[in-house]
Amino acid sequence: MSDPGLACCTPLSGTAMSAEQAEQVAPLLKALADPVRLRLVSLIASSATREACVCDLNDAFDLTQATISHHLKVLHSAGLLDRDKRGVWVYYSVRPEALSAVASLFSTSALAPA
C-alpha cells in the first residue's frame, strides 16, 4: 500500500510547501500529535521484530485494550502503520516511508543556515 503523497514532502525551510502537500502531511502530524499515539509508534518501531499486536502494547499503558486499539486504528488510517490480521490478533508495523516523510519536514540539512 504505497501512498505517493508521502514522498513529496518539502522541508519546512527552503522551498515553501504547496497547499496540496500540506493537505497530505497534516493528517500524519495530527495523528502523531497525541502522546499515546506517538509512544505507540515509538514502541512498535523499536520492537525487535518491528511489529506488535495490541496484546504486546497493553502493559506499556494504563489504558484499556479498546482505547489502545482505537489509537492504533487512527495511526493506520493516517497511513503511519500497516496491519496484518493473524487469527484473532492484528499486528501493526510502522510504514517507513510515512515516518521518512514526516522526518524530512524537520531535516537538519533543511534547517542549516545558508
From TrEMBL:
A molecular function GO annotation: DNA binding
Keywords: DNA-binding, Transcription, Transcription regulation
Pfam families noted in UniProt: HTH_5
Domain (HTH arsR-type): residue spans on this chain: 17-114
InterPro entries cross-referenced by the UniProt entry: ArsR-like_HTH, ArsR_HTH, HTH_ArsR_DNA-bd_dom, HTH_MetalResp_TranReg, WH-like_DNA-bd_sf, WH_DNA-bd_sf
SMART domains: HTH_ARSR
PANTHER family tied to this protein: ARSENICAL RESISTANCE OPERON REPRESSOR, TRANSCRIPTIONAL REGULATOR, ARSR FAMILY
NCBIfam families in the record: HTH_metalloreg
Protein name: ArsR family transcriptional regulator
